[in-house]
Amino acid sequence: MKNIIRWPGLIAFLVIVVGIAVVIRVFAGPLLKGGLEYGLTRANGAEVNIEQAVVQWSPFALTLHGIEVTDPDQPELNRVQASRGYAEFNLWDALIGRIHIHELELADVAMGVERARPGRVRADYQRERDPIDWQQVLADLDIDIPSLDEVLARSEIRTPDLVSKIENDFQQQREQVETARENLPSRERIESYRERMQEITETRPRTPQELLALRERLDDLKSDIRSDRHHVETFVSTSEQAVRVMRDDLAALREAPSQDLARIRQLLSFDQDSMSELSGILFGPRVEQWSRYAFMAFDVIGPMLQRAEDQEQRPNRWHGRFIDFDRASRPTFLIDNAGISIRILDTDVMSNWQNITWQHDRIDGIPTTFEAGASATQWWRELYFDGEFALSDVRGFSGHQNWRVQGVNLVEQSLLDHQGVSARLLGAVLNSEGRLGVQQGRLDGSGLIRMQDVDMRLDGEARWAQILSDVISQVNAFDMNVSVDGPLGQPGLRLSSDLDNQLQQLLTRALRQEADAHLSSVRADLEQQVAAVTSAWEPRLQQFTGLRDQAREQNSLLEDLLSVEGSDLSIGEQLEDRLRDRLRRRIGG
Amino acid sequence: MLTMLARLLKALNAETSPWALAWAFVLGMFMGLTPLLSLHNVLILFLALSLRINLTGFILAFVVFSGIAYALDPLFNFIGEALLGAAALEGLWVTLYEIPLARLFQYNHTITLGSVVFCVLFAPIWLLVSHKLIVLYRGRVMLWFGKLRIVQVVKSTKFFGAYQKVSGLRGDF
């Protein structure tokens, strides 16, 4: 044995091996810290910091302190951070890439917290979706506040045109009436017809010759009456038309100033399209921040799913390849139980998770479940999240998350500070509930955010901001509908709210009040124009009405006179009596 | 390098056992042909350091076979693909896949498995060939070699000076 074994070499080998083991044992924490920071930074796309890593060898466990994951899209914020993370797992399995964590504890998890200094973003990081730049939306918004002069210029005030048109109409009607009136028979002539008819009807023919002569006189008289009656009928028709046209025109003219003012007030309102973005500008960034908590579950599972999507290694004759003989008997990543304490508004909300994996088929399809809840605190009345999800080869990634928060007291916070416009939420009570689903790795869901007891303040140099600052304090409550759609890691948010309608109505009301003083002078001017026309033409209308009535009476008299027939004269006393009675009744003689 | 070559010549010319040199060549071949950063190479290194084999021969064999390995990698890859893809062996591979130690040996890497299997099969041949060559060298080539005019010239060179310097040292290094 002595000739075979080279003791110095054997001892040197053992010394080296033991030395490496000691180094690993002593420096395992720093080595793991560096390795994890490097690997997680590559996966995250931006700097990941771990303050300290402590290894416990039996049972094997790793404790990380001060975990900060930079948000690659906003390097000044942490995508997620935790004060402490503890994981107990099997080391041998971990060495071959099979992570089975029996117990995971994460303390003080928070999203969107500002970093001490901005994190570095990897040069090869590519964001999946350009986030909505609400401040750019504000810059592009160009809220159009109409001025009164502009409105008057494009308001098409119709009263002056109507005055001119009606005066033309009246002149035309007047000429027509005057023309028709010139052809009217005189009073004397009508009276002569009546006297002649009276004479004929009072004559007592004693012989048939006298009767025939009397009938001829009657025929002559009726012929004369018919020629004049045509003129009377023409006048009646013309005067009736004139009266009708003038009455209608005067009625329209009296309404014209009111209609013009109503139109001006309508134009003194805000463009609905431009106002539809205002709630997004004010609350969009804040809702995005709040939504991080709603996406909490999927933020946890998202990075794991990316690992699941890793492609199999391609063959390479010069470098070879590792062949996977995983027959799906055990999951390559599984956390049996996890307790994650989430930091929300200086309060810890405890969430409990079971069966966190992306290989749910390997644990008999049992989904990952989670539940987070907190009883009433000074910040809220109720807070509750729950949900489940599973990744299956057949069904893909599917799951849902529900949330219900009640009575959240929002503290003073900035909503907007851009281009000289600043908006602050001084206080509000938030209630929200909703559901977020996942199908085929895409998020789809919606939620309602109900704001009550709202106290907001807005300041700015822009004219719209000045007007808005007056009315925004009048908003006491509003709802926001948030819809979510997009890939798991980069969901897109859409925000709609009745706040926009409220602000539009309040701004319109404020604008109209501001314009009312000027509009009253406009009204007075228009009404003066109308009064000038009506005062001139009202007497004319009365005159035309009187003439029309007189003409109607004349027409009626002539009609009665024409109703006497020659045969009526042959009856003697009866004729006399009937004609006398009729004439007395008709003409009041 | 000259010193190392000189040491090898010394070992060849000296009383070092031909088997010790042949085993050194075999272990050097293992380490040279298989991927360096593999767990089995720790075992090879352990054997090389612990057993009384010629370390110079081991290192030179490692260097030479490392160069040859680049040309043979496609062959190793082919062998590894054939073995790991063999249906008859699938049960074995699946079982090994669940054993952490086997995974640490990277048995499922095509070039690693192919090169190890090649080395295991080629090792007896290479051992015997090496031994035979060493014996032949000492019995015939060394004498004939020493009479060559060119060797006479070499003996007057710097290299020969180094060789003579090493000859004065004790031990196998």
Mind explaining what this structure looks like?
The complex is a heterodimer of chains A (589) and B (173). Among the domains of chain A are: 88 residues, no CATH class; 184 residues, Glutathione S-transferase Yfyf (Class Pi), Chain A, domain 2 (Up-down Bundle), CATH 1.20.1050. The mean pLDDT of chain A is 80. Chain A is an alpha+beta fold. In chain A, a hairpin with a 2-residue loop joins strand 12 and strand 13. The radius of gyration of chain B is 20 Å and the shape is elongated. Chains A and B meet through helix 1 and helix 2 of A and helix 3, helix 4, helix 5, helix 6 and helix 7 of B.
Cα-atom radius of gyration of chain B: 20 Å
Largest sheet of chain A: 15 strands, mixed
- H/I helix tally of chain B: 9
What quaternary form is this?
Answer: heterodimer
Low-confidence stretches of chain B: 169-173
**Count the helices of chain A. How many?**
13
Question: What is the CATH class designation of the domain at 148-270 and 527-587 in chain A?
Answer: Mainly Alpha
Brief characterization of the structure:
Chain A has 589 residues and is α+β, with helices and mostly antiparallel strands. Chain A is built from 13 helices and 15 strands.
